[in-house]
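New to this. Please check this fold:
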Amino acid sequence: MADRVPSDHETVETHRVPVESVGRTDRPRVVLPAGLGVADGDTLRLALDGDRYHAVVETNFDGEPVLSHVADNRRLARERAGTNRLAEWVAEGDVSLGGSAHLDVVTDGTEYGLRTPGKRVVYTVTGGPDASLSDIARDLDS
């Protein structure tokens, strides 16, 4: 059974992160904090105000880890295909380009949440994947 943890729980670490536009477009990108423990190409479970999706960590020109495409499943996230849920979230919500959001570390290295500042969210924690399964998936991706 998965645990449920609110965003204001003592085990959830929260960071304020900028929501930027990619170049001169209106496509959003979130710059992740340094020292988060994620690397270019990592696939994460990512909730947007509580709705669960997946994202792949990329690196911007400054070498910072960023999220710019959030998808419905891991495959779509890796392929950068399907509807970009991050763009929808910014367009339909109270977070705007040039503003900021809160990034919650739910399970370090695998599960994160982006939420509108001031909004309380309850996350379903599934725990990290089995290490051997993660290694096999990473080998298949390469």
